[in-house]
Specification:
alpha+beta, rod-shaped, single chain
Length: 260
């Protein structure tokens, strides 16, 4: 082979070597790029997963908060409904109370004048009745009058006490009482035993049990009884003091006045 041919062959070989080297270098660059891209993708995926995990945690927290809020809202609704019913009930009760107060006020407007009339009637009755225990009964009526002007006593209590006074007068008409006192006779003050047998008779017996008197309704004064009544008056005193058993007694009874 000529020297020229050798040179050409060497030149071609070197050129091929350089071309192979360039091709190898060129082929290595895409591999490196692929690895970088894969790494970037993995990094991005990891970052995305982290974000997804964080969002998932936040979502779970939000769902839990939502459920708690819904439960609290339901409880509050139930409680508010309960309170609303209580308020309605209280309003109805207040309406009833207001109506009762109105009725009580109207009742008092009618009852108070009635109570004054009842006291006046009781006062008149005591004045016209047989005068046994006159001072005590008169004081009872005066107490009722004073009570009516006492603001510390309720209307119901005033009415109750008036009824009690009437009840006492009713009992006086069905029971007998005996007590000692002073009887004015002919300008003298005699100590005697007084006794009233219901409202049938009002009598007096001297302490020596020898003389007896009765209250004359018509004359409105004491009148001496005959001896035939003394024994019966003694029995009346004993009976009133529970010292004798009930028995028939002869007492001076005034005939009732005929109605005109």
């Amino acid at each position: 082979m000529s020297r020229l041919s050798k040179r050409s062959t060497l030149a071609a070989a070197l050129a091929g070597a350089f071309m192979f080297a360039g091709s190898a270098a060129y082929a290595a660059d895409p591999l490196v790029s692929s690895q970088d891209v894969e790494k970037n993708i993995n990094d991005a995926a990891a970052a995305s997963q982290a974000k997804i995990d964080k969002l998932s945690d936040q979502t779970r927290d939000l769902v839990a908060d939502y459920r708690t809020t819904v439960a609290e809202t339901d409880n509050l609704k139930i409680y508010n409904d309960h309170i609303a019913k209580l308020i309605d009930s209280q309003k109805q009760e207040m309406a009833r109370y207001n109506k009762q107060i109105t009725n009580i006020t109207k009742t008092q407007q009618g009852v108070v004048p009635l109570m004054y009339k009842m006291i006046d009637a009781l006062d008149q009755f005591v004045k016209l009745d047989v005068p046994f225990e006159k001072e005590e009964r008169t004081q009872r009526v005066q107490h009722l009058r004073d009570m009516m002007e006492d603001s510390s006593v309720s209307t119901s209590e005033k009415y109750r006490q008036i009824l009690d006074a009437y009840q006492i007068e009713v009992e006086n008409g069905s029971k007998s009482y005996a007590w000692q006192g002073i009887l004015p006779v002919d300008g003298k003050q005699l100590s005697v035993d007084f006794v009233h047998v219901g409202r049938v008779a009002y009598l007096a017996l001297s302490l020596d049990q020898q003389n007896a008197w009765f209250w004359n309704r018509e004359k409105k004064d004491w009148e001496k009884l005959g001896d035939e009544y003394v024994t019966s008056v003694r029995e009346a005193v004993k009976l009133a003091r529970n010292q004798a058993a009930p028995n028939l007694m002869k007492l001076p009874i005034e005939a009732p006045e005929s109605a005109e």
